[in-house]
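A quick aside before the break. I want you to see a complete sequence-to-structure record at least once, exactly as it would be stored in a machine-readable document. Don't worry about memorizing anything.
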Amino acid sequence: MGNAKYDIDRYDYSLELQPTDEGKRSKTFASISLFSNGKNVADLNFMNPGEEPSRKYFAGEQLNIDLTYERLAPTVDMLRNEKPLRLLVWHSGSHDEPTHIEARLDTGDLNEIGHH
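That is the input. The structure line, written in tokens, reads:
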């Protein structure tokens, strides 16, 4: 099992004002990019209401994950109001071809990740 822990020091938040008519972006309402030490470590894509998340994968070291619309407000609230923030990621299988990926945005300092 692979894992990583990132201290989040910055985020970019964007809304799709006029989504495209084709491809995955047409189903995306908003995106949040998480940064650790100036490096983009995760892109969180929030789907339009009623759309189901379908993607969770790594692009290099960066986590890309689709989330439901309902998770947007709590995520933005946490980013704005909680410090410090850490992104915890763990996966089974290889990094290039994971069989399972889990991730958590957390305010605590967890020593062991992957244990619930």
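Two observations worth writing down. The first strand starts at residue 2 and ends at 8. The chain has one helix and eight strands. We'll return to this after the break.
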